[in-house]
Amino acid sequence: MVTTAIAGVTTVQSAMAQSTATQALEETKEIVVTGTRNRNVGGLAVDQSVTKTRSSITEEFIEKQAPGSILEAINILPGVNFSDQTATGSVGGDITLRGFDQQRIAFMLDGMPLNDTGNYAYYPTMNPDSEIYSKVDVNLGTTDVDSPTASAGGGTITYQTRRPSKAFGVSAKATLGTNDYSRQYVQVDTGEFGPWGTTAFVAVSNLNSNQFKGIGTEDRKQINGRIYQSLGGSDFASVAFYYNETRNNAVYNSSLATINAGNWSEAYASTIGTVSNSISSGSSGYYGYRINPTNNGNIRAQFKKHLTDKLVFTFDPSFQYTLADGGTQVSTLTESTGVLSMVGSSYVWNELKGYDANHDGVVSTTAYKVFSPSVTETRRTTVNSSLIWYIDPHNTLRVAYTYDHGNHRQTGRVSFLEGGQWIGDVFSEDSSLWVYGKNGEEIQKRNRQSYANLKQFAITYGGSFFDDKLKVDLGVRVPDFERELNNYCNQISSSTAYCAKDPGTKLVYTGTVTQITAKAPASWTVSYDKTLPNLGVSYKIADHQTIYTSYAETISAPRTDSLYDRLSLDLQPEISKTIDLGYRYSSPNVSGAIALWKTDFDHRVETAWDEEIGASVATDVGKARMKGINAEIGFTPVKGLDLYASSSYTDTEMLENVYYSATAYNPTKGKKLGKVPSVMHAVNLSYETGKWDFNVNGKYTGKRYASLANGDAAPGYTVWNANVSYDLGQVGPVKDAYLRLNVKNLFNEKYISAISTGNVFYDSGNYFWIGAPITTMVTLGTKF
């Protein structure tokens, strides 16, 4: 990284945006329009040259924060609301962006899409270590014109990996903290080597911690690396890689009534068959039966080459692999009746009734526990390519093509627990432990596979006029998205499948319904396409001052869980139409922006009861409207002191009632969307003096409703964090040694951090995340 101080405002030369092509175009525009790259105030209030609303953070801010999720660092930006389940960043979290949940936000790493190919979920626990990032961009309400995504209703969050250093170096960190937190991080930069000056880095980390309530643990091992080769000028070739393993226990989420009664420490049971903190330890109440293991990795390349002085080709291929398990993972089986109870439902499985499944010589009349995980395995290949024509210094034309293929395999193999009590094979891959029925086939609660194929063409024109005061970006992308779905089970519902040979088998249900007929295995294909404009105009009205407006349409195609029930095949893609009007000010000491925005959100999909069908199905609930204001400002009043503040106001409204029969409906018209705070304010103060570096930041997050009923709500809260480091200088052979203290939730605020909505239309089955209490971490860092 190259940094230059300009009256307290830093300029950072680093990778930008999401794809190599977008990076190339935006770096050119920044030099032409501002004469700098990434001017910022302490890594915040980053100067933007794009004709859309974007906020960013750089490594200068990231490196001061406590080890954790990178999303926690961007939580200070306007429009962003992130909540972590623990203070470590290794378990998971929840994020909204301008009122859109994480399944409607596109996440990218070096141009590679990160959302799940099936349900578009994003898992923060799978993020690379924050030390490898040079910059994070948040596009509010829009995508870049070449974004390889079919799930970006609310915008994009793009991460960029730092370039390897040209000088050899080794850096190491050791961190200890609250709850027996321990983390080690080692990074090696090779410096330039070989005949072409190749550079590379590799980084490894290990994290172990207890959780702040209950006795669950967190363990994560990770490796990252990048090889970078300059090809002359701005041309380059790069290959980056990442692999991550996590073994975590889930964190218990409480009801609002429990929290209001003053119980903030509710947790899963510590032993099998006992009661802990008023929670029954039935088959799913024991903490050891609530695990979230993941194995995931990727390899991603970037290539940029001038074919002529005016023609540039970029090519970004990637491959990623994910193996994950989560949710309720232990069920009970009664052999005499064939009842398999799991995920809140109990069915008589004819292939198990009266059958000695565990081959102990007895057909058991009492229930025993079995392992029933929800395993997802994904293999994904993506190629994003562009051809850029620099017509002249003021006009560019780009054509882009994206191919994205995902193989999404979901299984639920029921297997025996080791010793009848313990989960050994966390992904249920050991066939010797599987439960088989009378027909000799393994019993599965789900057995399905989908293929997601995105083929996208995009074209964009960029022009600057009137001495580069007026900038125009005119773009369009045309995604053609196809899902091939294969259900290999005789299906009961979208979440539970019955695996037997006879599709006409009547399944006796132990709940309110007496019989259900399973649907036969089937394969089918659905496809969606849409032409999506992406337009922006900016004008420099005076020195340091720019106004801009943008309009973008985005799409979020139906998810696999919305389609597997085969009752919702006529669902339309969700469509967002967003318009922004903004103002930016950028001078050597001050950088700020404010934007007014409005989004029309059509064909919003939720799971709703259908009276005619007699089941809960994915339903088009109509239109929603969101509007608001986002603002941020950074200021350097004196050398060494950086001040930053952001503020957001978000107003959401459902425009229609949702009918579940010809005359009856859920009264959703006029209601606010769930989990969305209407008001957020954040501040950050950084001060460097001598060998000391002080940083304090805080954020207020307003009230959030749990559902469209607008009844249960999580109250607003304020959390402060403090970070202090001291430069130890050179200690023997170690240079640039430092000691850092990070304190999260400085004033030990008790608060509800996020909401897990049970029913989107009623205040029923909602659970609330408890924010982590005050957490302290001490890091000793060194460089060699």
UniProtKB/TrEMBL annotation:
Main location: membrane
Annotated ranges, domain TonB-dependent receptor plug: 48-154
Residue span, TonB-dependent receptor-like beta-barrel domain: 279-746
Molecular function via GO: siderophore uptake transmembrane transporter activity
Keyword Iron set for record: yes
Keywords attached to this entry: Cell outer membrane, Ion transport, Iron, Iron transport, Membrane, Receptor, Signal, TonB box, Transmembrane, Transmembrane beta strand, Transport
Gene Ontology cellular component annotations, sorted alphabetically: cell outer membrane
Locations listed in the record: Cell outer membrane
UniProt membrane topology term: Multi-pass membrane protein
Keyword Membrane appears in the UniProt entry: yes
Coiled coil: none
Homology family: Belongs to the TonB-dependent receptor family.
Protein name: TonB-dependent receptor
